[in-house]
Each structure stands twice: as structure tokens, then as C-alpha cells.
Amino acid sequence: MIPLEIRNLNVDFRTLRGWVRVVDNVNLKINSDDEILGLVGESGCGKSTLGLAVSGLLPPNSRVTGEVLVKGQDVVQNPDSRKIAVIFQDALAALNPVLTIGEQIAEIYVYHKNMQKKDALEKTKKVLVEVGLPDNTIDKYPHQLSGGQRQRVLIAMALAMEPDLIIADEPTTALDVTVQAKVLQTLMSVVKSRKIPMIYITHDLALASQVADRIAVMYAGQIIEIADKYELFENPRHPYTKALLNSVPRVDRDIEELFIIEGEPPVPGNFPTGCRFHPRCPFAMDKCKQIEPGLVIFNKAMVRCFLYE
Amino acid sequence: MERGLITTLFFRLIQSFIALLGVIVIIFVLSRVLPGNPALAILGPKATPENIQKVMSEWGLDKPLAEQFIIYLSKLFHGELGEAYVMGYSVNRLISERLPASFELVIFAFILAILIGLPLGIIASRRPDSKTDLALSSLAIFGLSFPTMLVGILLLLLFGLYLGFPVGGRVDPRYSINTYTGFMLIDTLLNGNVNAFLDALKRLLPPALALAIPLSGLLLRLTRNSILEVSSLDFVKTAKMKRLPERVVLYRHVLRNAMIPIITVMGLYFAVVVTGDIIVETIFAWPGLGRLIYEAVMLRDYMVIQGTVLVISVIYIFVNLLVDLVYLYLDPRIRG
Amino acid sequence: MHRVERISNFLAIRRIKYGLLLLSALALISLLVLLFSPFDPTETSYYSLAKPLSTSSRGWPFILGTDSLGRDLLTRLSYAFYLDVGVGLVIITISGLIGLSLGLISGFIGGILDSVIMRIMDILISIPGFILAIAIAAALGSSLWNAIFAVAIVSIPIYARLVRGMVLSIKENLFVTAAYEAGVSSFRIMIKHILPHVMPIFITQASMELSNAILYVAGLSFIGLGAQEPTPEWGLMMSVGRKYIREAWWYPVFPGIHMFLTILAFNLIGDGIRDYLDPKRKLRS
């Protein structure tokens, strides 16, 4: 029983023009409890929506089809069996401003484990210390903490849920670079030590490479490449992945050319026919404009591109 | 701003104090802006030469303006609002007799408005843009567009004429009720007189409804919008993610935050209620401050009008201060 | 994002349309009545005291009945429409212009002048508007013009604060600083650069204040401080009519309904304008 299997997941949103598909036929797996899966893509590619869909936090004007199997249980069919924690990007917005940190975390223990408030607070202190915060944090309000501290609170909150899966949606993007590194370190260490599988969503491929064991690249609602991280960097297959890698200047290689991707990513509802990347792809063939490529499976990777069929 | 709680409170109190002073000055200026001898205007129909003399000496109307102000201030300091030359008695007595009636009416109306507007607003926010929501929201706009004058008269027709409720006064004068709290509803019960209680209730309900209907429309709309705005914030997602019971998410997370803008506006709503109160008391002959103003205008007793305006303003300043204090308590972000 | 704006814009425009429709209907009916009514709004008639829908001695119908002095209600209401709406417009014009000027000056010049003006505005706001209007109208004497004056004064602070707030935030803008540096006179800066940005919000506020102004004047008249007999004015008619509610319920009710419809129309328009100009309103998903 693998920790996570997503099968044929689609997310549609209702708009003035009818239903629009934002996440298209996604298949993902996390194979072991200490694996971190990176989900990388530009803004608007659907990665956050995918995260929200898996965790069941989509707004009411949406529709989810497909299966999300967490430890074998389909959480789309049985939402109540879900134990998925999400760590949001903006920690200040993600915390209730009128409750103390202690109250917000302790309530998890109170309502999930039927604990008394006193005991819940004790456990809260423990989990706060685990993420590197002093235990007097329980009496503080969110606005009294620094950005890094708040993010750690979110991590602690996720741990307190004792989840089967953690989804971290750009948790450090809003932080200063130095703070970013420390918080990331904390996140990775608690996740590994507690053996909780994690999906790490980010737009920053370099960051994903530091954190994740495997990386899935998303474009226009579809997964276009999955590979474990070394494979992805040594041997990027999809042109988009190559472009993402090349646009980050690297010290260990001569820069042949700074590969800048032309154009903008397409908006849901306005996806190009055939391969969604073809308007921006330097390798586009006639086939690409008409037919949607399927996933081609290699040993340690998958790609959605006709170059490999 | 690194202000502590005490400093914020202190400055807020000073603000109220200045407002109070300002009100006193404005009312004084208004009373002296009357062309000609103020005594004539104050006395109105009772302007005999001896009365004029009396008023002039009492208020120092022949002295320079600054001195007049001092006299006025010192009287206020002693709690004296003057004499009601036309209506008789002292202004203080008239106001203190009428104040409990207005108090009871306003509080009852507020409670009604909250009981109607708040739950309906919550219901409307559950499924935005659904038929229920559109119906309730339209109802709210309809209700709050109703001028109090019209609501009052329609309710007077409905309850007074059609349903035969008693109108005028707080309770049937044939009952003798000992005053314990000043609230007729409570006092009648304390007197053990159930018939009197029902009678008082019948007299209180129509004017209270007249006040409550526009207010509940406002509250409904405000509650609905506030809840919807808060619900779209991230921390509500966090609460849902934590799989807390729906009730807990609603009350502890959504409402506790949505209440903040609602409470803040309550102070303003108090002004709305006070405004409506004057009209409603006039229509239903409810013996409160509002009707006192009406009578004073009819009889042209300026001292009474002046005194009542001052008292109402003081109460309003006080209520606003209270609301701000509650707001300070509710929102830790302001405390610093 | 664009789609959201379009929906709420659409609903806002629809509201404005309904409001305007209602308003035009009322205005048109009143106008026609005024032009063609055989009745004089102030002519009393002993023979037609307090009658409901019926005919007068000369054969013309009293469509809405008569009041306690035998005057045709429909004719009076039609006068009242233009009177009250006119009064409302006068009030928002006066208070709006004064408030606008005060806000502009206060915001732009700043300093002690700003503090003083704002202090006065704060004090004015700390008394409920209607109460203060009563105090002013009572001091000046019971007449419609004094009521207009009173309500206008009471309405000024709203505009002043609003405009000042906007001026302060616009002042920070680069193009104002640029103009200032370039040596353009302060007055011109105010008019050409700041004013156009202030106007939309100002107009929105004014349109919402119109109903309020009408309500206040009617309220003052209701308690005897505004319009006096025989002026046809909604508040006054309802006040007098209240006394005859047993015998002639139509006397206070019809003016009330008429006023309500007019206020509703203006509220719809004002709300619609406000929603249209403020794309951030997330009332519709």
C-alpha cells in the first residue's frame, strides 16, 4: 500500500462559459513514506489547484473527478477519511488573527483526540519545540511573530494533525533567503524523521532540486515530465524542462545560450490544440499541433512529448 | 506603532472628551445665534416681561458671550440643564422621566434586529447567489430602504387598528406598577402582574419592530457580506484542513473574525436607531426622549430641545467609546 | 479575474437600470399629474374632506383620495415629489461643494489648517446627524429653508473626510510631485490632477447621500421643524396624516409609499454606481 496514488485526476471550474478544465488527467505516485515529491511549474499551471484538490479545499464552484488514494483509501469518495495537512505560502493569512498560536494548534488535539485543553496545550508546546520555536509561542498572536516563525507554526500545525500526507504549497517563497534556508531545513528534517510523505509545490526548479527526491513538472494543467531529481538534471527530456533548467544560470557548465522561453503560458479554457507547449517549443513538429502526446515511460522517468515516441 | 494597550485607551478617552466639549460648545453657540434676545426665543409663547427678566438674569444674557459660556458650563457641571419654561418642571426632570422609556425601546429594538438580521445573514452567506441568498438579500435591501416613517405608520395600522393592540404609553394607566428597574417589561413581572406584562409587551412590540426592521435589513446585509469576505481568507482553509467540526469552523474562525467589522459599525447603527427612535416615538406616542423632542418642538420650548440634544449626544459619544473598547478587546492586532 | 468583474458589473448596471426606470416612472407620472391635474394642491374644499378614491364636486376623480382639508392627494404628492427631490439635490449640492472644498484644501495644504478642519469635522460627526439637524433647525426657526441649511451642515463632514482621505493618498503619487516640482501652481495641481481622481468616489457618495438628505428633511418636517403648511412635503403630510389615521388611512400611507419608492429608486442607482466603480466588491462569485 503506497502512501499516495493519484489516478486520472481532473479538476474543473465553473465559469460564465461553462466548465473549464484546470487540471487534466494527472497521474502521480509517492512510493514510500520518506519520499518527497516536488511539483514544479509556472504560475497558473494548476499546481496549487492540484494541491487543493488532493486536500479537499477547493471552492464550491469546482468539480473533481478521478481517484486520490491515500494509503489505499480514496479520499475523493470518502472525504472524511482524509488526513492531509497543507502548509500554505502566506502564513499570516493562513493563521486566524484573533486566536493565539496555542489555541489554533491545540484545537487539533481537542477535536481529533478528544483531549482536555490543558493536555492539548502541553502537546502543542512539544510540537512547537520540534520545529524550533520556544514554548511561550503558545501565548502569542500571529501578528506578533516574524515571517519565519509563522511558517514554522504552520509546519507545527501540520505535524500536530499526524497526517498521512503533507502538501507544502510554496511555503518559503515569501520569506527572506536566509530565513528560507533555515525553515526549509526544519521542514525537511521533521518530515523525514517522522516519515511523512510530502508533495512540495514550487515554481522554483532549483529549490525543488534541494528538497525533493522526485520531481514532477507541470504545464497547462498536465504533468509533462516526472523523473527522480538526478535524472531530471542530468538528462532533462521535455523541451520545457530543458528551458526551465537552462534559464537558471549555472556555475558548473558553460552557458551555450540563455534559453529564454518565448511567450506566456496558456490560460485554462484557452489551451492550444495538440501539445499545449507547442506554440513555445523550438522543436515543435506538425504532429504536435494536432495530437496530444501521451506519457512515454522510461526507466526512471516519464515524459509527455512526441520527441520521445 | 509600538503603542501599548493603555496608551491607546488613554488617547481614545481624550478623543471622547474633546468630542464632548465640542458638542457642548456647538449647542451653546446654537442657542446664542438666535437673532434678537435669546430669552424671547427660549420663552416662546411664555415671553412676559418678568419671565424675560428671570431668564436673562439666570443665564446672564446681558453679559459678554464668554461670561455666558462660563455660566452655562458651570450649570452643566452641576448637572443642571435648565428650566423648561414652556412645558414646566426642570429639563432634568423631564429627561430623567422619559429616558427609561427610550432606553427600553431602543434596547428591545436592537435585540430584535440582532435576532432577525444575524441568523438570516448567516443563512444567506451559506450558499452565496443561491435562490435563498438572493431572496434574503433583496429582502434586506427592501427592509433598509423603508423610511422609518412609513414602517411606523404601517405597523400602527396593522397592530393598532387591525389587530387592536393598545397604543400610547408604556402600560395601561389603570395598572399601578411599582418601578424597580425602569424596564416596564421587567417591572410588570416583578409586580406579579401578568396582564400588565402582556399589555406592556403589546405596546412595546410595534414601535420596537418599526425600529428593528430597517436595522435588521442593514445587519443582514452586513453579516452576509462580512462572512463571505472572511470565508474566502486563507485561515478558513486552514481550519477546514484541520478537519474541525463545521460548527467550530463557523463560530470560532469565521464568525469571530466576521464580527469585528460588524461590531465596529454598531456605533454608527446606534445613530440610525436614535434617528428612527424620534420618529417612532412620535408615531406611537411612546413617552420617551424622542417624543419629548416632538412635544418641545410643538410647544416651542427651546430649553428642552437643547437639553435633550445634549443628553442624546453624550450617550452617543459614550456608546461609541464602548464600541471602540469592545473592538480593542476583540481584535488583538490593534492592541499592538 | 476579468470574468468576475464582468458579472458584478452586469448586476450593478442592472440595478442602475431598474433604479432609473423606477425613478423615471415616478418623475413622469408626477409631471403629467402636475400638468393636467384639475386640482390646486393648496385649495381646500369643505365638501371633500378626507375622502378616499371618489369624485369631487366638479366631477374629477380623487384618484388617491383627499386629505383632511379636502385637497387632492395625488396632486399634492406630485408636487411633493419635485419639492423633496429638489430639496435633496440642493442639499447634496451645497454640502457636497463645501465638503469637497474643505477636503481638498485640508488634504492638500495639510498642517495646522488640516488639523483644525478635521477636528471640527470629527466633532460634528460625534453627534448623530439627525439630532444635530434638529438642534440647528430648532435654533433657526421652523421653515423649509432652515431645514435645508441644517441638513446641509450635518452632511458636510462625510464629504470632507472622504475627499481628504483620497487627496492624501493621491498626493503621494509621482505625477503630483512631478507637477509640483515643475512649478505648476498648487491650485492648478488640485484642479487638474487631484480632482479627476476624487470625482468618481465623490459622485458615488453624493448619490448615496441623496436619499439620506430627503429622509432627513422629511423627518424634520415630520416633527414640525421643516416644511410648514400648506407646503406639500412628504414628511409634513405624513405627520398631519397620522392624526387622521383612523378615518383616512390613505392620508399618511400614500405619501409614505411614494417617498419609499423614490428613495428605493435612488438607493438602487446609488448602490449600482458604487458597485460599478468598485471592482473589488466580491458580492458575486
UniProtKB/TrEMBL annotation, chain A:
Coiled coil: none
Family matches, as PROSITE patterns: ABC_TRANSPORTER_1, ABC_TRANSPORTER_2
Topology in membrane: Peripheral membrane protein
Domain ABC transporter positions: 6-245
Source organism superkingdom: Archaea
Cell location: Cell membrane
Translocase in keyword set: yes
Signal peptide: none
UniProt key word Cell membrane: yes
Protein name stated in the entry: ABC transporter ATP-binding protein
